[in-house]
Amino acid sequence: MPYARIITIDGPAGCGKTTLGYRLAEELNYSFLDSGILYRAITRHVMNVGAKPHQLDSVQAYTETLTLTIKKLRPRFQFEINGKKVSKLNSLQIDKLVPIIAAYPFIREKVRAMQREIAAQGQVIIAGRDIGTVILPDADLKIYLDVSLEERAVRRHAKQNTEERSLDQVREDMRLRDIADATRETSPMRAATDAVIIKTDGLHVDEVVATVLQHAYIEPENED
Ligand code: C5P
């Protein structure tokens, strides 16, 4: 297999990690895990069971026995929380609460275990905030997507469907989420020192895919 076995993609909200991840998975016939959905699903669960997101004790009490189970890796990752599928993970309310839930170390531990289990199978791409730095520091290839807040906000604003947020609101919500993710104590969002940083402002996704594939390619060793 002439490509990196494990590829990590980190970067801020709306930087295109998921689009890139799915495209690479298709090109390489790898599995793709978008770790953000695990934090979103736990946040939804916390809301469903009536825990108080801002109170550590409350979240801890309601998530102590929470189990995350992988149902399927390909073609699309599927998982369950306490034996049930969790849906509706992209609401505005979840966007606001997820950085709070994701900052609790005991929540990150649960997600970390699942991420490492998936990575152990190899031929996988995992996207998130701390994958190259904390979850898989030995990954073969680490990518960090760097895109201006303005471009991310414009893209996200164009894609929004049911909610009606102005561009200014979308930009401000993203800015606050970036700050929360980058300044938390446990596993803050940042590029690994050995990550390939790709600035994608103005680039088409095909160009980003091509760049990552170049980095992922491993020259076969000459045997004579
Ligand atoms: O990538 P996405 O925007 O879906 O992530 C939602 C939230 O989940 C992030 O804002 C962050 O708080 C959390 N997250 C994280 N670590 C990851 C992936 C996501 O803390 N590896």
Structural summary, described in words:
Helices cover 47% and strands 15% of the residues. It has a single domain (6-215), classed as Rossmann fold, CATH 3.40.50.300. The radius of gyration is 18 Å and the shape is globular. The chain has nine helices and seven strands. The strands form two sheets. It has a five-stranded parallel β-sheet, with helices on both faces. Strands 3-4 form a two-stranded antiparallel sheet. The chain starts with 5 loop residues before the first strand and ends in an 8-residue tail after the last helix. The chain has helices at residues 17-28, 36-49, 56-63, 92-102, 105-119, 131-135, 149-159, 167-183, 205-216; strands at 6-10, 31-34, 68-72, 78-81, 124-128, 141-146, 196-199. A hairpin with a 5-residue loop joins strand 3 (68-72) and strand 4 (78-81). Helix 2 (36-49) crosses helix 4 (92-102) and helix 4 (92-102) runs parallel beside helix 8. The protein is α/β, with parallel strands linked by helices and 224 residues long. Residues 13, 35-36, 39-40, 98-99, 102, 128-131, 177, 181 line the site of cytidine-5'-monophosphate. Cytidine-5'-monophosphate binds at residues 13, 35-36, 39-40, 98-99, 102, 128-131, 177, 181.
Please specify the SSE layout and strand pairing.
Elements: E1 6-10, H1 17-28, E2 31-34, H2 36-49, H3 56-63, E3 68-72, E4 78-81, H4 92-102, H5 105-119, E5 124-128, H6 131-135, E6 141-146, H7 149-159, H8 167-183, E7 196-199, H9 205-216
Helix pairs in contact: 1-9, 2-4, 4-8, 7-8
Bound molecules: cytidine-5'-monophosphate.
Cytidine-5'-monophosphate binds next to helix 2, helix 4 and helix 8.
